[in-house]
From TrEMBL:
It comes from Belnapia mucosa. The keyword Isomerase applies. Belongs to the pseudouridine synthase RluA family. This is RNA pseudouridine synthase. Signal peptide: none annotated. The lineage of its organism: Bacteria, Pseudomonadati, Pseudomonadota, Alphaproteobacteria, Acetobacterales. The keyword Isomerase applies.
């Protein structure tokens, strides 16, 4: 079950974490799709005109972020910048840190999931990603930042950029993300945050997203302090 869709705020610029002439880093709220779907509804495309800041070209996302994932989203403001950013993501050179609150928790305190992912679909269930030896290589490093009653707070660092990678890998560990209905975490909202991102530019560009309201209670139960 998806988080309720999010309408554009009066000032989308208030959610910017970084702005320069080439790129923006936006704190995307959970529930906002990056692209408009066939059924319509609010999406990041509604925000783009307000984020142009005088440029004729609207800023475009340089990578994917699931609808129900909150946090750092990079947008290119020019065609060359978008191509450059796309190359950095494709080459795995972008540093990405996620926070997840999971149901249960891994026995160890840290580790790496190395489990290939393959897309599957049925007419009844739609599509999903599954661990399958025939899939594309996928690796996620993780460590426990805190634990609470029936919950754990994980820091995840994806080494590859597969669709739904962190969600599937957490489920593969036996501890699906809280609120991730697709992979066993129960009904939303999904407790997954793209916490920080680092772009290897000159000078480097990095940003950290704040914890969204819907994740604060569960994180606090695991020891997080605002």
């Amino acid at each position: 079950m998806s988080t309720n869709r999010v309408a554009a705020p009066a000032d989308p610029a208030s959610r910017l974490l970084h702005r320069d002439d080439s790129l923006l880093i936006l704190d995307k709220p959970a529930g906002l799709p990056v692209h408009a779907g066939p059924r319509g509804g609010a999406s990041l495309e509604d925000w783009q005109p307000a984020l142009a800041f005088g440029k004729r070209r609207l800023p475009q996302p340089a990578h994917r972020l699931d609808t129900d994932t909150a946090g750092c989203l990079v947008l290119g403001r020019t065609k060359p910048a978008l191509a450059m950013l796309g190359g950095l993501f494709a080459e795995g050179r972008v540093g990405k840190t996620y926070w997840a609150v999971v149901r249960g928790g891994p026995e160890a305190e840290a580790g790496e999931v190395d489990a290939p992912l393959l897309k599957r679909s049925t007419a009844r269930q739609g599509w999903w990603m599954a661990v399958d030896p025939a899939g594309q290589p996928a690796r996620t490093a993780w460590r426990v930042l805190g634990r609470g009653p029936g919950l754990a707070w994980l820091e995840c660092r994806p080494r590859t950029g597969r669709t739904h990678q962190i969600r599937v890998h957490c489920a593969h560990l036996g501890c699906p993300i809280l609120g991730d209905a697709r992979y066993g975490g129960g009904d939303g909202p999904m407790h997954l945050l793209a916490r920080a991102i680092t772009l290897p530019l000159e000078p480097p560009v990095s940003a950290t997203a704040p914890v969204p309201p819907h994740m604060r209670a569960a994180l606090s139960a695991c020891g997080w302090q605002a």
